[in-house]
Write a structure and sequence with these properties.
By secondary structure, this protein is an alpha/beta fold. It has 12 helices and 13 strands. The protein has a domain of 205 residues: NAD(P)-binding Rossmann-like Domain (Rossmann fold, 3-Layer(aba) Sandwich). Helix 1 packs across helix 7. It is globular and about 55 Å long. Bound molecules: nicotinamide-adenine-dinucleotide (NAD) and 2'deoxy-thymidine-5'-diphospho-alpha-D-glucose (DAU). The site of 2'deoxy-thymidine-5'-diphospho-alpha-D-glucose has 19 residues, from helix 6 and strand 8.
């Protein structure tokens, strides 16, 4: 089987490529990635020389290239992860989010239809549902109500994918997962950012009062769910993915400080993210019951292991955060703390 993974050099994508090579050794993985600031071939260093991992540098919005890749590699299935993924960046500059997440996804869907690809797995997000109050869970029937430019662009792509199934009978499955954590996450997202700052004895910028809630899932559990959806998901269906691990941001930040042995005085409450969603929580009953998927990581231990990974992989995060990213980060960081 030949699987095209888009965005395979990013956080989840690189973990997914590794997962596939380990657990589906007969599959060839074609990895189409533009290598934006968030994508690094270094994330897949251990696969150097692996004939069943084929890297293609390119944009999912390049129709000619995408069709060529689908034909040349006789792609059976697509796992579409390539995206601009960071909410704060979408507030600073929404255009790139529309271009890649909406238009790029549309080009990929159209190419899949034209060439005749078997299955199209659209990797969406729980953020398409908007925000919850103190109770309740997102189910697959919860109406979409995205709030940020990021989540709106993902909702557009998610609905386009479902429209391609409905209208053109393309074999589409959509997944909507909660917040991931684990190795190789770019240090702009909550967990790696806080670890890196703590290790530098820099303030840890907590938005608002720190009581916003996210539902955390280890990235390997997300990967196994994506493969379950690819292999066993029903055409035209949506599957929520989550690990029943709701935590307030401030709990996570304190746990990280404890793990690296730094004082809570490093915590700095800063101006809230505009339009900050209060709470996400996933009801994953459907994927558990219909596809037999279940998470295997226990949050407290896996968070400690994740923190330890960043402590041990300092050269990795120093390299990926150098150059152009440094400029963005420094500007943002100064603004947040002022
Ligand atoms: P990421 O930012 O770490 O990686 C994105 C990857 O996509 C990078 O390798 C980047 O180079 C590539 N890319 C960006 N624009 C591209 C383009 N135009 N053409 C080709 N490649 C391009 O993102 P992530 O956190 O790994 O998220 C991956 C996917 O999973 C996204 O679609 C995201 O919406 C979704 N998702 C993420 C989470 C999470 O917690 N991180 C949760 C649910 C869903
Ligand atoms: O829910 C799935 C989504 O999770 C994915 O679709 C997105 O791609 C992914 O980035 C993530 O979005 P969030 O906005 O929830 O993740 P982030 O790590 O940016 O923030 C997590 C929480 O931490 C959120 O409530 C904002 C808060 N936060 C974040 C940063 C970066 C802070 O308090 N301070 C910070 O510096």
């Amino acid at each position: 089987m030949n699987i095209l993974v888009t965005g395979g050099c990013g956080f989840i994508g690189s973990n997914l490529v590794r997962w596939l090579r380990k657990h589906r050794p007969d599959a060839t993985v074609i990895n189409l990635d533009k290598l934006t600031y968030a994508g690094n071939l270094e994330n897949l260093k251990e696969l150097e020389g692996d004939p069943k991992h084929v890297f293609v540098k390119g944009d999912v919005g390049n129709r000619e290239l995408v069709e060529h890749v689908l034909r040349a590699h006789k792609v059976d299935a697509i796992m579409h992860l390539a995206a601009e993924s960071h909410v704060d960046r979408s507030i600073l500059g929404p255009e790139a989010f529309t271009v890649t997440n909406v238009l790029g996804s549309q080009v990929l869907l159209e190419a899949a239809r034209t060439v005749g690809v078997g299955r199209f797995l659209m990797v969406s997000t729980d953020e398409v549902y908007g925000s919850l109050g103190p109770t309740g869970l997102f189910t697959e029937k919860t109406p979409l109500d995205p709030s940020s430019p990021y989540s709106s662009s993902k909702a557009a792509a998610d609905l386009l994918a479902l429209a391609y199934e409905h209208t053109f009978k393309l074999d589409v499955v959509v997944t909507r997962c909660s917040n991931n954590y684990g190795p190789f996450q770019f240090p702009e997202k909550l967990i790696p950012l806080m670890v890196v700052n703590a290790l530098h004895d820099k303030p840890l910028p907590v938005y608002g009062d720190g009581t916003n809630v996210r539902d955390w899932l280890h990235v390997d559990d997300h990967c196994s769910a994506l493969v379950a959806a690819l292999e066993k998901g029903k055409k035209g269906n949506v599957y929520n993915i989550g690990g029943n691990s709701e935590r307030q941001n401030i709990q996570i930040v304190k746990a990280i400080l404890a793990a690296v042995g730094k004082p809570e005085s490093l915590i700095k409450y800063v101006t809230d993210r505009p339009g900050h969603d209060k709470r996400y929580a996933i009801d994953a009953t459907k994927i558990r019951a219909e596809l037999g998927w279940q998470p295997s990581f226990v949050f407290e231990q896996a968070l400690k292991d994740t923190v330890a990974w960043y402590v041990e992989h300092r050269p990795w995060w120093e390299r990926v955060t150098s150059g152009a990213y440094r400029q963005y980060f420094d500007t943002q960081y100064k603004q947040r703390l002022s």
